[in-house]
Amino acid sequence: MPEASIVSASPPAPVVGRMAIVHRTCDTVLGAMAEALPDQIPAAYYGMSTTYHLSGIAPDKSMTWALFEIEVGGWGGSPKRDGLESCSAHIHNPANTPVEMVERLHPVQIERYELIPDSGGPGRYRGGLGIRRDLRILEGNAHLTILADRMKFGPYGLQGGEQGSLTEIILNPDTPKERKLPSKVTGVALKSGDIVSFRTSGGGGWGNPRDRDRKAVQRDLLLGKISRRIAKEVYAF
Predict the structure, then answer these.
(1) Nearest Cα to 232, choosing from 223, 222, 101, 221?
(2) Which has the closest alpha carbon to 206: 24, 28, 31, 42?
(3) pLDDT of residue 73 exceeding 90
(4) Per-residue pLDDT tens for 30-39?
(5) Which of 2, 51, 227, 237 is least surrounded by CB atoms within 10 angstroms?
(6) HEC letters along the chain
(7) Per-residue pLDDT reduced to its tens digit, 82-111
(8) Percentage of the chain surpassing pLDDT 70?
(9) Which residues of 47-76 are buried (b: 16+ CB within 10 A; e: fewer)?
């Protein structure tokens, strides 16, 4: 690896989140290989986990607490099948964190945990869906640190497929206090009642959406994975 580069930083360069670079390296290499092997390479996956660290002190000062989670997104569609929905990809293997365990051990409440309709990139083989996970602070104050990506450029599609959705992290969504948070930030002050909404990217689509099997489009509609608007405007269903 060349010294003093993004894949081989040299002291005293500041570094954080090595897995972010590894994920994006996978995306870059696979994208380049698709030029030579167009019928063998899948579209881009979510490209980087949305990770966050949340910590606080109980109001009576009796305890401190900390929560670290890794939220994944959708895989890219491949030449043979749709991408997986919100599943750990390639070079890491984090498990789903059960809502019940998070709520039992921390003063938080998970208010939403669901797949995001229309987040997978349209294609003959659709990109997998991203997830939405909304978390409310129940008591005291807390501080939030985020390491994420894909807020400007979604996972790319291939062979006529479209890109997946962008990652979003929103503080107090659908309220007068709504505020979008950046992909990389530390020390975000939260208080009791605040909600943070994590929304991960869907994967890119593979192939022309108009070539998608009609039964697959109908199934996606019935399962709520795509909206009627996307079915009509993108898939001509």
Answers:
(1) 221
(2) 42
(3) yes
(4) 999 999 999 9
(5) 2
(6) CCCCECCECCCCCCCCCHHHHHHHHHHHHHHHHHHHCCCCCCCCCCCCCEEEEEEEECCCCCCEEEEEEEECCCCCCCCCCCCCCCCCCCCCCCCCCCHHHHHHHCCEEEEEEEECCCCCCCCCECCCCCEEEEEEECCCEEEEEEECCCCCCCCCCECCCCCCCCCEEEECCCCCCCEECCCEEEEEEEECCCEEEEECCCCCCECCHHHCCHHHHHHHHHHCCCCHHHHHHCCCC
(7) 999 998 887 777 788 899 999 999 999 999
(8) 100
(9) bbbbbbebebeeeeeeeeeebebbbbbbbb
pLDDT in tens, 34-72: 999 999 999 999 988 899 999 999 888 888 999 999 999
* Residue 19: closest CA among 87, 120, 90, 96: 90
Q: Check the CA dihedral 235-71-90-101 and report its sign.
A: negative
Q: Count the neighbouring beta carbons within 10 Å of the beta carbon of residue 139.
A: 14
pTM above threshold 0.85: yes
